[in-house]
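Sat 14:20. Reprocessing the chain from the morning session after the first attempt stalled halfway. Input below, unchanged.
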Amino acid sequence: MPRTRSSYQADKYPQELSISITQSTVDCFEVAEIPLPIPRFGSSASRPYVFELIRAHITIVGLHQANVSIYEYNVSTTPQVGAINLNDVRRIFHGYIDTAFVTSGHSTFDGTRDIDFGSHDGHGLLIGTDSIWVALETVDTGAQNSLHLDLEYRIITVSAAEYIGIIQSQQ
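Finished this time. Tokens:
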């Protein structure tokens, strides 16, 4: 069922959540749990709150440190263990950069990426979990690398039936 403006209540103005993750050693797999700013106490309307992701701005710090290196990042609603699993349907977004294409002139990727999750109606991607997990994995960079995310979001309320569906699909 498509959401309409009357079926949920949203913040009028989006907010921004900034997240940074830095590898603990050179070229390792690093995961961080990021708690979302969602109130978990009932409101007067007794409708559950969810996180509506509108836009993401991703910056990879230190992208051009090596001629042939791989940068991979992932944002998911479930904990990630070991290598990034591309088959996980609970993945929110993922990025893979092979700098061999950048340094050879076959790509113009500058280390930033913008992802718009908004629909033509102005709705974003609903996340019902309390946290998201951000993973960064690099190969052959010879350095500790960092990933910075700026997430534009709103806190909205949804019906109990919609909330249960969101939770079941994301856990």
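The radius of gyration is 18 Å.
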